[in-house]
Design a protein that fits this description.
This protein is mostly helical. The protein has a domain at 12-49 and 91-169. It has two helices and two strands. Strands 1-2 form a two-stranded antiparallel sheet. The chain is rod-shaped.
Length: 170
């Protein structure tokens, strides 16, 4: 006598399969969050690079036309000037905040010791500071209180990147 062959799955097999699929799904959620954050960080780096390149190109082009000005006077007044002059199509948004808000570093701001590769937290010597450019009437003011033309931008996002650095320091 032969035993009848069963077609289909038992309740235990279905329960084990469902449990394994649940474990795999819970492992994928953090991976997708990390991938999303990594993508946003890449967008932030690209936006910063695009704006910084536009600032440098703007100053370089002006230096060829306006040879009597100092280097720091050649930088744009603000991000909108880069758009008006067609060095940028638009002011990019910060992917971490979702807004086109940036921390502006002006030519009149004291340099960040971190940017100068100074190993201590002391302020740099006077001879390493950028000269202050006298602003035009209605000129920009950076978030640090200095004045002058647009020299650099930073993210306003609070938080730490996957590599452990603060977004505001990029």
């Amino acid at each position: 006598m032969t035993l009848p062959s069963h077609r289909g799955l038992t309740l235990v097999e279905i329960a084990i399969s469902a449990a394994l699929m649940g474990i795999l799904a819970t492992a994928l959620v953090p991976l997708s969050q990390v991938a999303s954050r990594r993508r946003a960080e890449l967008e932030l780096r690209q936006a910063l690079r695009a704006v910084r390149n536009a600032i440098d190109r703007y100053a370089e082009d002006r230096s060829k036309r306006e040879t009597s000005r100092t280097r720091l006077e050649l930088y744009p007044r603000d991000l909108d000037e880069l758009v008006r002059s067609r060095y940028l199509r638009r002011v990019p948004r910060d992917p971490m905040t979702g807004q086109p808000d940036w921390r502006v570093i002006g030519t009149g701001d004291p340099p960040d010791p971190q940017d100068l590769s100074i190993g201590s937290t002391q302020a740099p010597d006077e001879d390493t500071r950028l000269p202050v450019v006298q602003p035009r009437a209605g000129g920009p003011t950076s978030s640090q209180g200095g004045r002058g033309n647009l020299l650099d931008i930073r993210s306003t996002a609070n938080g730490t990147a996957l590599d452990g650095t603060a977004y505001k320091d990029w």
